[in-house]
Amino acid sequence: MDLKKLGILLLSTMLVLTITLSGCLSEQTSGKNTLPSSGEKEEYITVKDMWGRDVKIRRDVNKVVLLDFTGTYLKVMRIWGIDDKVVGVDNSQKKNVFLKVVCPRIESIPDVGSTSKGLNYEAIMAMKPDVVIIRAFSTNREREQRYQEIVDRLSEMGIPVVVLLHPTSYDKPNVKTVWQEIEILGKIFNREKEAEDLINYLNRYVELIRNRTKDIPEDKRPRVLLYATPDYMLGAQTIQSYFLEDIVHGKNVLESGRWIKTSPEEILRLNPDAIIALGHEGYISPEEIYAGKNIFLNWKLLQNVKAIKERKVGSLGITEWRATVEFPIGLLREAKTLYPERFTDIDPDKEEVKLYRELYRLDEEGVKEAVKAQRYRGETH
Fold first, then answer.
1. Beta-carbon contacts of residue 29 (< 8 Å; ≥ 6 apart)
2. Are 258 and 235 in contact (CB under 8 A)?
3. CA–CA dist 234, 315 (Å, integer)
4. What is the secondary structure of 73-87 as a DSSP string?
5. Which residues of 205-218 are buried (b: 16+ CB within 10 A; e: fewer)?
6. Half-sphere exposure (Cβ direction) of 126: Cα atoms closer than 13 Å
7. What does pLDDT average to over the chain?
8. Which of 13, 39, 94, 320: CA 20 to 30 A from 290?
């Protein structure tokens, strides 16, 4: 064999060996000796809750337990079309007549007890939720400790817990914390764009009311009693007082406190310019108050109160007064009661129907049932 042919043979042999070795190395790097995959990291996300805790949860949450006495989070999930992910709720939501209309599935979702009276931890464990979300009404150390014990117990069971805060939990409530709750829900369920859209939808009402009333001089703003059925007044440290003073621009007759028992004698003493009746444990209409009906309170004894004599009473439905999806409609009713001349072009009843159709996608019969439920009289939670 001449040298030229020998050189070609050697070169060919080297190429074959190189390809073979490359294949072997490739097989090795794709096997057990490779670096750890980042797939596990990609399966999880970290959410910062409203207690400032970093909570690791599955990226794809399929099963969730909601401990939220207001039903707000279930309604948000219904709006996003993902309420089928809810496998358990606290018993207060099971009693909410409005929730039964906008989210009929609530009837079949299991009850896991109550954050105030005791949870069924065994039932929650059996549901194998990806996350438990709590809307904490944490207004004092005792309540905070109770929620902490719930978080600790669930965490010991290996269940992630996200704590969100009802806005009245803060010393200075603000609507921005409501938006923060929705934002965190959007992150949990990978619905961040939908969360932004929902916030913008609700905030349009807030800004409309705020802009129409912000120039009213302090001395022209009426003194308002926030009356919650059956016999409470809401003080300055509630989200409802913030709604009144910072958005509608009225004045709360109470300068401090949260939930305070009242009586006809106390209301006579305060003699408010206006009364906003909140359907806490049932709805009462302005007409019933003007007629002196004995509903929750004996309104016949209060006919000399300035608000009643001057027909400055407004009523909010059983969820419209809460920090929940329907609160902008409650604000419209409140604003129109205090400043009717500034809202002649707006009918809160029509806006209520519009919201039910656009957010909950209710048909005509569903809308009628939702309107009826807002005017429910009886225990709502």
1. none
2. yes
3. 15
4. HHHHHHHTT-GGGEE
5. bbebbbebbeebee
6. 8
7. 90
8. 320
For residue 381, pLDDT over 50 is answered with: no
Tokens read off for 251:
């004045």
pTM for the predicted model, two decimal places:
0.87
Residue 75 is which amino acid? K
In the predicted model, is pLDDT for residue 4 greater than 50? no
Measure the N-to-C terminal CA separation of the chain; round to a whole number of Å.
99
Q: Are 122 and 103 in contact (CB under 8 A)?
A: no
Instruction: Band the pLDDT of 23: cuts 50, 70, 90.
Output: very low
> Angle 120-126-131 (CA atoms, 0-180°, nearest 5)?
85
Mapping DSSP to helix (H, G, I), strand (E, B) and coil, where does residue 166 land? Answer: coil
H/E stretch holding 102: helix 97-102
Report how far Cα 97 is from the mean position of its chain's Cα atoms: 17
Tens of pLDDT along 209-255? Answer: 999 999 999 999 999 999 999 999 999 999 999 999 999 999 999 99
Structural domains of the chain, with CATH:
40-190 (3.40.50.1980), 215-374 (3.40.50.1980)
Block residue for tokens 């600790």: 152
284-310: per-residue pLDDT in tens? 999 999 999 999 999 999 999 999 999
61 and 78 Cβ atoms separated by less than 8 Å: no
The CA distance from 176 to 235, in Å, is 19
